[in-house]
Amino acid sequence: MQSIKSEFPIFENARKEGRSLIFLDNASTTQKPQCVIDAISGFYTGYYANVGRGLYWPATIASASYDQSREKVRAFIGASSKKEVVFTSGTTDAVNKVVNSFLLPQLEQGDEVLVSEMEHHSNFVPWQQACQSKGAQLKVIPLDAELNLDLSELASMLTDNVKILAITAISNTLGVKNDLKKIIKLAHQHNVKVFVDAAQLPLSEKIDVQEMDCDFLAFSGHKVFGPTGIGVLYGKQGLFDKMSPLAYGGGMVQQVSVDKTIMADLPSKHEAGTPNIAGAIGLAAAIDFVNSVGVEEIGRHSAELRKYAVECLSEIEGLTLLAKDAEGTAILSFTVEGIHPHDIAAFLAEKGIAVRAGHHCTHPLIQKLDIAGTVRISFSIYNSEEEVDLLKNTLDEIRSFFL
Ligand code: PLP
Predict the structure, then answer these.
(1) Among the listed residues 191, 196, 115, the one whose alpha carbon sits nearest the alpha carbon of residue 149
(2) CA–CA distance from 29 to each of 1, 148, 206, 220, 340 (Å)?
(3) Residue 354 Cα, ligand 1 centroid: separation in angstroms?
(4) What's the pLDDT tens digit per position in 217-244?
(5) Is 131 a catalytic residue?
(6) Mean per-residue pLDDT for 24-35?
(7) pLDDT score of 25 more than 90
(8) Residue 122 CA, ligand 1 centroid: distance in Å
(9) For a pocket test of ligand 1, which of 29, 92, 95, 378 has the largest count of ligand atoms closer than 8 A to its C-beta?
(10) Can you list the domains of the chain with their CATH numbers?
């Protein structure tokens, strides 16, 4: 993987500056390959203009590039039409938009919304607040002893009152992967729509929204080697058609008069204002990069590193791995008896090892586990077994320093 790592300039720049950087915080965000950086600067330096308006050449090239970016995303997630792909600023923005445009207009007192105990706050708080504003009930699907979603509990919670099930594809804290096809099938048997938080999914396995049959799905560009400030909301065309616009403004209308506005067709109807053009172009370059390496290869490499880390870290006395048998993901959390996760992260940071410590925006999960937080490591294509070895040795050092 050394040749792939060289495509990410931060590592060579760090080396030149004499800094060590072992980046094990990929669940938070991923580093950027040169091709993504070049695509963004190429837009600003070569053909910068707004999209969908001008007839002059930079505007036509920018418009075509923005449209091609949407097509790249469509193919990346297996959607049947570009009408089902709306650009957002990220996963959080996408959740809020579905809450506001899909859920709230139909939500009434006594209705229910289902989320799970492992949700990121982004896929928890917006649903919770919507329920509280309408006197509806947020119901939380529990995890079983192995920290997997309890499917029998889910089955018993799917009633006629449920308006939507919002579920993560992969827990950003535990690295547990949910069986989405099974969950969605179950929900649909009860006519319940499903929103999939796919923030951690795109580098783990090939997404196919048609095969999955989800109603909505969202992910963030910055977690797939793309820029910050760009994300994707997929929605089935029938649902996007029926929903009122996700926001109002320029670019999403066909005709406006003093009395009335006729909305534009999909997907423009759901994208008000000047979009994040550079972000979309950068995301398209990131998708090209991911495809050139192969999602399966990235997913396999990261999952093998997780497995290797489980083996290595299991040898450390007093270290507890969470959901250690989870398969096919890049994320691994642990605690060390007698040492606070933040102290571990601070010590590792001193050595140039980037990990995350704390609650990982999953307070309900951390409360259920009754712990102060975890140390989380998360892998990507540029990480190696040597880096895991170094982590293990540094954790040994930390134990002898603190205990
Ligand atoms: N959902 C999950 C599972 C995540 O891991 C994250 C980010 O860590 C989010 C949602 C929120 O993503 P963003 O901050 O890019 O909107």
Answers:
(1) 115
(2) 19, 24, 19, 9, 23
(3) 18
(4) 999 999 999 999 999 999 999 999 999 9
(5) no
(6) 98
(7) yes
(8) 6
(9) 92
(10) 2-24+294-402 (3.90.1150.10), 37-292 (3.40.640.10)
